[in-house]
Amino acid sequence: MQRITMADVAREAGVSLMTVSRALNDKDGISEDTRSRVHAVVERLGYRPSGIARGLVTKRTGTLGLVVPDNSNPYFSEVSRGVEHAAFARGYNVFLCNTEEDPQRESIVLQSLTEKQVDGLILCSPRLLDGELSKALNYFPASILINRVIENHASSAIRSDDDNGAGIAVQHLIKRGHSAIGMLAGPERSFSGRLRLNGYLTALKDAGIQHEPEWIQFCSPMVEDSQKAAVDLLTHCPELTALFCFNDLVAVGAIKASMQLGRRVPEDIAIVGFDDIPLASLVTPALTTVHILRYEIGRQAGEMLLAKIEGKPMQALTVLPVELMLRTSAP
Amino acid sequence: MQRITMADVAREAGVSLMTVSRALNDKDGISEDTRSRVHAVVERLGYRPSGIARGLVTKRTGTLGLVVPDNSNPYFSEVSRGVEHAAFARGYNVFLCNTEEDPQRESIVLQSLTEKQVDGLILCSPRLLDGELSKALNYFPASILINRVIENHASSAIRSDDDNGAGIAVQHLIKRGHSAIGMLAGPERSFSGRLRLNGYLTALKDAGIQHEPEWIQFCSPMVEDSQKAAVDLLTHCPELTALFCFNDLVAVGAIKASMQLGRRVPEDIAIVGFDDIPLASLVTPALTTVHILRYEIGRQAGEMLLAKIEGKPMQALTVLPVELMLRTSAP
DNA sequence: CTGTTAGCGCGTTCAG
DNA sequence: CTGAACGCGCTAACAG
């Protein structure tokens, strides 16, 4: 499979390399006649320009890098789609990389992306420390951080209004008469987790509710683990009548734990999730949860990045709105 | 941000370009001494090789293309992760592209991937016709098809054992005493759909059960649409005591339809899904479904592709086993 | 063991 | 309006 090159097209069309280049890139200074002749030959030969040869001279590859913890997580898979959508619309392709929450893997992936010469990077929930991260980002012409901010760095960021989301969720529980509200807070080092915890604490405080430290329990964001954590929490704090959960998977674990302990949801214990993944409306009882614009995060991150690449002015931080979805688990 | 080049490293280390190249690519014919000296300079300068310059001469970019209909679908997001995992292990990066089931978009995406000079392509559920597809694939050095075969072409394929999976699912229903078994068959043009329908028909025939044409209803693979289709089907064919569904989302629709019609699952109507997506075990009643190795499809597709790229011998078709997961919806 | 010479396929000078 | 030369950053051939 010998690749067809511009020289082949030029020879076949009886023109010079330059003319072919001009015809392909829609530059002016070329007659309509020769332009269409060149295009005909391109078509006939099935010529495809070499993006990498072009990239070598233009210094632009038309590619973006997207780094997420785990693309099989519905949260990130929608973000990915949003990014890809924005990229496609502008003729860019995107490298998708999974870090599996492993900082070392994250380093490797970032390095490979610099070697691939991506025009920009979108980094989702990075595990690296500020110092390393900042250093790594310097290798990229442009970058956007999702769900994290980093001090003293040119990279912009986008995130959902997590603290506010937690606030309205907990306020809703309070309005429904709950005051003993526990929280299954997710991973302790999660940036979103901190914001959500913060929103929870603030809402309790604003309502004049004294929160017990034992009401808060960190847990890994998976169904089985959080089920165990929920059993623990509900056993040690039987006074709790409601649980606010880090995310929907944790909330599902909490529902399972409640059933396991013979407590009815929502009659004996109300449960609120976060993220509104597709699952949320389909489990029984359907989850009351905070809806997040996952796809939109990705899409806007993509557009922010493309704007940055093209040198347009950019705001440093975008915060996307959230919405409480009232369903059965906490009506 | 002036990029550091090999020339900078060479000058700084007091050696020639070639020596730097050799040191970086672990070629022999270079003393351990100078190698480490070069590496030190590389480290100090923060030099990163340009993959695209390298690709221009080696004709290999270390990238793969992955084309799926929709990465936010849990099926494909796991396939993606499998592909990326295999690629990462061998130092490759992967371009993820969504076609959104749009043939035109698929063409565009494939063309952009050829310009990016990917070393290989994995194409999932292509919408293009055999002729176009075959022509498009010729632009790629190597390719693997997921869930589709194409005649007279060098590209290998991988898929799950869909027909057999449908067979064991329906046989299970028959063993439990059902004979009036309907099928919500998914999109009519789906390759997997055809195989599953086929397995369903064969199982009925083998059991000597006469199937009524009206028992089969095609539907789009989404919860709301299939709920409507299921209401239709159950209303027009009240004799049905079991439903075999194209996939789990359709099965969830069928469960909702049953509830809507006041029929209990599984007492009045047994329901079996397909794919075993994460959701399946979490809905109520938990879905009996056919488990598919989604991640494994991706991973093995990736490894097949890499083997092909490296010229290793390859079998033309891999069929992955499936397994019936007995849960509540059809015990 | 190391350096020199030639391109890879394209776009960007500059001349015609 | 068109073409010839040069170079992007790197590696494959050869030399030394």
Notable characteristics:
331 residues; Rossmann fold; six-stranded mixed β-sheet; six-stranded parallel β-sheet; 3 domains; 16% strand; homodimer; DNA-binding; 434 Repressor (Amino-terminal Domain); 45% helix; alpha/beta
Describe the structure.
The structure is a homodimer of 331-residue chains. Chain A has 331 residues and is of the alpha/beta class. Chain A folds into three domains: 44 residues, lambda repressor-like DNA-binding domains (434 Repressor (Amino-terminal Domain)); 125 residues, Response regulator (Rossmann fold, 3-Layer(aba) Sandwich); 132 residues, Response regulator (Rossmann fold), CATH 3.40.50.2300. Helices cover 45% and strands 16% of the residues of chain A. Chain A contains twelve helices and twelve strands. The first copy, chain A, has a six-stranded parallel sheet with strand order 2-1-3-4-5-11, with helices on both faces. In chain A, strands 7-6-8-9-10-12 form a six-stranded mixed sheet, sandwiched between helices. In chain A, helix 11 links the parallel strand 8 and strand 9. In chain A, helix 5 packs parallel to helix 12 and helix 8 runs parallel beside helix 9. The mean pLDDT of chain A is 93. At the A-B interface, helix 4, helix 5, strand 2 and helix 6 of A face helix 4, helix 5, strand 2 and helix 6 of B. The first copy, chain A, binds a DNA duplex (16 and 16 nucleotides) through helix 2 and helix 4.
